[in-house]
């Protein structure tokens, strides 16, 4: 959205004026991410991760297109063609590791992005559409990453493909035909590898399309902010450029340092060693696990061990998909009118001491073998996960006494400045935030 | 012209009745819908198993060299097949189980051919999420029930490859097969 005080686009060069009258593309960019888009002035560093996710997507698309110039999607040579990239293609090792670790970093920034939204109530009115589109992007990301991991055709690739398509096989009646349709056969083989290559190429561009909708939907109400208080006037905002382009640039620098440290010094740390063994359809590795970013969901899948009306296997599949689908209903489950978790004492406790540890525990159990005590722990954690969204959040939003909100964004900002200016231990201001 | 006026009079008599134009509209959209389905069908169906994959439908295996107590792994439809020559003891163990207590109740006789009860032929695909269970090769973990053990999520199968413990919902699947001679079995 453009607030009334947003700066107006006035082309300076004759060429830009000529273009603006025929195809106002520079105007669109100016109003989207230039000085024409006013943004709350109090955004903290958690607001960097949208841009970082966008950068990660570009990184994956560029390295991905390059890798596809040297990769061969056929069962007999896929593994060798990846080794050919590693050994023979100029800087191929760098590009391959950049793509593989890029996926991990994509998920790291997206998980922080999602939990930012969960804490600051970014999913609440009027930003529900932003949230829903974000979840669509997340689902597409997971499908894309899964199919990408299959392409090297190592042991984890093959058995991952078998197990993940096997999830669809758990559906009653139509399950098996669907699995055969996905694989193009009775087990993962050339047909599966070939189509996964095609779809792995397609989906990132679908993601890019949905991201455009995501940003569009965000720019209707404008960015949220850590107080959750609406923008009231020009004193509450600064233009996106140069203020946030600079801040995002700084965040991008930090991100790239972390990424390059892993890329150069521990490129295999986040991967699984068994994927350096070529696929063998006659032998399953003793401990097969998906990539780390799927572990919480994998733990939920495996938490169901008892048949109850439906077979345990189907329950696991339903629960795993439900753990994401229920997030689509979050804007209507959390009825509290206060957006930011900073002013919600009870919510804050359940967020930091309930949800966050719960997801971390699920992640840990998903990577551990399916043995006791991990199975029992993931059962408890999975139960808590669903309880958090379906029971705890609706109840909190009903009974919680929230803290007083600042009158405006600028007030909350100035308050912080006064506090900083005061001598240590002396605080002459009223407590406006609990943070 | 007369017919047009006539039909307009007939169906257009009631102010909120169906007019000829509404019918044409519905018919045209329906026709386009049928066309769309006809176009989408091949786009979807191309992903189903192709002719060369379906051509792998059957395979012949020589079982003359498999001694009692031994098992071999072979491939059918790109999936592992276990062919096991059961010992008398394993047959007795399998028959001693109370079938009603099983998760997927089946007797050994139902899972083998008549007169060939020692030949246990199953898919080597765990019915949970599709891993290959251990127990076919010598020295592998056969699980608590002396049959197969799936290392992925800990499913145990007995000497008739029936599910006894763990998350798998069904017994190891028995494919269609027939003995074409005393020593050759055709699977599929």
Characterise the protein shown here.
The complex is a heterodimer of chains A (about 425) and B (about 190). Chain A is built from 16 helices and 2 strands. Chain A is mainly alpha-helical and about 425 residues long. Chain A starts with 13 loop residues before the first helix and ends in a 14-residue tail after the last helix. Chain B is elongated. Chain B is about 30% helix and about 20% strand. In chain B, the strands form 3 sheets. Chain B has a 3-stranded antiparallel sheet, with no helix packed on it. Chain B has a 3-stranded antiparallel sheet with strand order 2-3-4, with no helix packed on it. A 3-stranded antiparallel sheet of chain B has the order 5-6-7, with no helix packed on it. Chain B has 5 helices and 9 strands. Chain B starts with a helix and ends with a strand. With about 190 residues, chain B is α+β, with helices and mostly antiparallel strands. The interface of A and B includes residues 159, 166, 167 and 169 of A.
Helix content of chain B: 25-40%
Mean pLDDT of chain A: 91
Name the biggest interface.
A-B, 33 and 28 residues
Oligomer: heterodimer
**What kind of sheet is the major sheet of chain B?**
3 strands, antiparallel
* Beta-strand content of chain B: 15-25%
The amount of helix of chain A comes to 55-70%
- Secondary-structure element pattern of chain B, one letter each: HHHEEEHHEEEEEE
Main structural class of chain B: alpha+beta
Radius of gyration of chain B: 29 Å
Distance between the termini of chain A: 29 Å
Let me know the number of strands of chain A: 2
Q: What about the largest sheet of chain A?
A: 2 strands, antiparallel
> Tell me, what's the shape of chain A?
globular
Low-pLDDT windows of residues of chain A = 430-435
Instruction: List the strand order in the largest sheet of chain A.
Output: 1-2
Tell me the number of helical segments of chain A per DSSP (H or I, 4 or more residues long): 16
